[in-house]
Specification:
Layout (H helix, E strand, L loop, with lengths): L1 E2 L6 H9 L8 H18 L26 E5 L11 E5 L5 E14 L2 E10 L7 E5 L13 E5 L7 E4 L14 E2 L24
Helix pairs in contact: 1-2
């Protein structure tokens, strides 16, 4: 068993800071560069989630088009004040449980309403990032039925950028040996998030 999410995946860390560290690169180009680098990583690296015998013919990950309207900067991580326990166990794709904490809430305006997503941290993790899995109206059709992931990192002013263009599928989409956290029901968005990774047609 391999843990999918320990908040230290280099490719996702790089994605979160891609547009921040390359101001001279237009945002869509920065995202395209990151996607190309990730495809190369999936195709060549020994710890790629793509099964070894499928890497040679790996065509690259499918994505929705870049949509800058689905990037929300300057968000604060509000203290969690919901009815669920702050400390809980999040189920995984292989039937296990991982100790997790509801770290707080992110609020943003989308679809003519205020949307909220809960951010989580893991007790066995060692990163500053906040894990934000989510479900939306594409889940189970154009995207994975158990949700997609975001890793959010604090900026220098302690705000966060929630960028759905960087949404990615858990590694268990490619190989069942990975143990992937399942998205809690509280993080189901009532609209389509047409950004980030998607499933290939016929997947």
């Amino acid at each position: 068993m391999t843990h999918e999410h320990d908040h230290d995946h280099a490719e996702h860390d790089h994605a979160e800071h891609e547009h921040g560290g390359h101001e001279h690169v237009a945002y869509p180009e920065a995202v395209a560069n990151f996607r190309a680098e990730k495809d190369e990583y999936f195709r060549l690296e020994h710890d790629s989630p793509i099964p070894h015998d499928a890497r040679h013919d790996f065509p690259g990950l499918p994505y929705f088009p870049v949509n800058e309207a689905l990037r929300f900067d300057g968000l604060t991580l509000e203290p969690y004040a919901g009815s669920e326990p702050a400390h809980f166990q999040i189920p995984t794709s292989d039937g296990k449980l991982r100790d997790a904490v509801r770290a707080g809430i992110f609020r943003f305006e989308l679809g003519g309403a205020t949307q909220t997503l809960t951010g989580y941290t893991f007790k066995d993790g060692h990163s500053e990032s906040v894990f934000v899995p989510f479900l939306d109206a594409t889940s189970g059709t154009e995207s994975y039925g158990a949700g997609r992931y975001l890793d959010l990192y604090p900026e220098d002013d302690e705000t966060y950028s929630l960028d759905f263009n960087l949404a990615y599928h858990p590694s268990c989409v490619y190989d069942s040996r990975f143990s992937c956290p399942l998205t809690p029901a509280e993080n189901r968005l009532p609209l389509r998030i047409e950004a980030g990774e998607r499933l290939a047609p016929g997947h």
